[in-house]
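FYI - complex with PMV, inputs then prediction.
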Amino acid sequence: MTEGNVDYAFSYAPGKVILSGEHAVVYGYPAVAATLDKGVRIAVKQAHQQNDGPILRAGSLGISSDIRPDPNGDGPELLRKALARLAELFQDRVKSLDMMVESAIPAGRGLGSSAALSVAMIRGVCRFLGINLEHHAEVELAMELEKIFHGSPSGIDHTVISKGGCVLFQRQADKPTISSIHVARQLQLAVGFSSPHGGTLKTVKALQERYMRAPHLYKHLFEGIGALAIEMQKALLEGHLYAVGELMNINQGYLNALGVSTAELEALCHIARSNGALGAKLTGAGCGGAVIALADGNVDHIVSAFQSAGFSAFKTECQTTEPASCTNSGKVENMYEYKA
Ligand code: PMV
C-alpha cells in the first residue's frame, strides 16, 4: 500500500511457546508447540539511495543502530549475518530494502523471537517483491535464517510460526512430520521472565556434550519427554486443562534433570503453582528465558504474583487454530493495528 508517496509492504509472524518437548525434539522425539497472540511486525519500503542493505531498524528489540549485512557494521553479528543470508537467498533483490521491525516479544527468552523475525522478514520481502510464496518454501527459507541464529535447529520454532496454531512436531532425517492439534479449550498463559538465556546454540551444545558422555542415561529422559508430548496432544485435543497442567509440571522435572533449568526458573514455577496455576514449566532452550504458567481463569493473579516477586511478566494466549493470512494494509506509525 502507499502512504505519503511511499510504498510499503507489511508482514506479521507470531511468537511461540513449546508446551512440551523442547531439547528432546532435537534428538528426534515429538514435541508440542503453539503460536501466541503477540508477535513481530515488519514494514518494508524502498530505502533512499541505498544498495548496501537490506537495512533492519529494530529499536523495539532494544537495538538503536540500523543493521546492515556489513561484517564490520553496527548491531548484533547474528542479525548482520542473517541479513547477508537474506540477500543471498533473494539474489540481491533485497539490497535496497528498508525493514522496520516492531516486536511485542522480547528476544532471548524462548518465545521464538528469532524465528518470528525470520518468518516476518521473508513474508515482508516477498510481499514487497510480489512473490507468492508457498508454505513449504517459506519454511525452507526461514530454516536458512534460523541456522544462522541457532546452528542446527530442530525446526520446530519457525515451522509452528509459519503454520500458526498448535502442532505436534517431530524431526525426521529428511522431512519433519507436523500435525495440527485442534485445541478444545482456550489456553491462557502467564509468562514470567528470568534473565535472557545465553543463546539456544550454547544451551543445546552444552546438553549435547552431557549426552555424549552418557547417552544411555539421557535416552531415558528423552524417551520420557517424548511420551509426555503424545499425552499432551491428547489432553489438548480433549480440552483437559488439568492434564495439560500436570504434563507441564512433569516436563519441567525432566528439563531440570537435563540441566537446563535454573534457580530463578524453578522459583518462577513455584510462584505460579502456589498462586493457582494448573502447571508451569520453562519454555524453549532454558538456562534463563521464561516460564509459562497455565491459568484457570486466574491469569491476572499469576502475572501479579510474578511481578510482586520482582519478575517482569505478561499474559498471553495460545492460538488454538491456524490463523487467516495477514492483510497487507494499515498505517506504518501503528503497525499493531494489523491483524494476522
Ligand atoms: O529458546 P528457543 O525459542 O530458541 O527454543 C529452542 C528449542 C530447542 O528445542 C531447545 C532447540 C531446537 O532447535 O528445537
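Residues 23 and 204 are 7 Å apart (CA to CA). DSSP finds nine helices and twelve strands in the chain.
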